[in-house]
Design goal:
By secondary structure, this protein is mainly α. Helices cover 78% and strands 0% of the residues.
Length: 171
């Protein structure tokens, strides 16, 4: 049971990495990634002994994140896929990990934006020979993908999440 729980806990980091890489290359986070995270949360929560109240708290945090993300999407600050991936990540991270997740995501997003601004100023000579997704990232006034920052934030916050704490207590 312990190895099965550990394997299923590893699904969240795997899916946020997939989402971040997919966003980097295509500038889109497909719905199946966020849907898979939401669906997979419930068996993992049951296996870790989270309980009805704990699942409710996680659902509340995920729903709050979705509502805030929808507002940010409406203001054109982030994309719809970003909002859904943030909400799905907060569902997994719960109350204990979400604040740290948002902090790490903001830091990673700021650093990534700074890196992209510098790359757009100094690496334009690479654009003609670069793969399409790199050329798209280097467009001077192009969009900035945020999935990478979300993935980094989730990975850095995951060790503090309630699900991980429960796993460590069980072992």
């Amino acid at each position: 049971m312990d190895s099965l729980l550990l394997l299923t806990l590893g699904l969240m980091p795997a899916f946020v990495i997939i989402g971040g890489l997919h966003d980097l290359v295509t500038m889109k986070i497909t719905n199946w990634i966020s849907v898979a995270l939401v669906v997979l949360f419930f068996p993992v929560a049951l296996m870790s002994g989270l309980g009805f109240t704990g699942v409710g708290v996680h659902l509340g945090v995920g729903l709050l994140a979705l509502l805030v993300g929808m507002g940010m999407f409406a203001l054109n600050w982030i994309g719809g896929g970003d909002a859904k991936l943030i909400a799905a990540s907060c569902l997994w991270l719960g109350w204990s990990g979400s604040a740290l997740f948002l902090l790490w995501t903001a830091v990673a997003g700021g650093l990534f934006c700074l890196l992209l601004i510098l790359a757009r100023q100094h690496l334009q000579f690479l654009t003609p020979k670069a793969p399409g997704w790199v050329a798209r990232l280097l467009e001077p006034k192009g969009h900035i993908t945020y999935g990478v920052a979300i993935a980094l934030g989730a990975l850095l916050a995951f060790p503090e999440a309630d699900l991980m704490s429960r796993f460590l207590i069980l072992n």
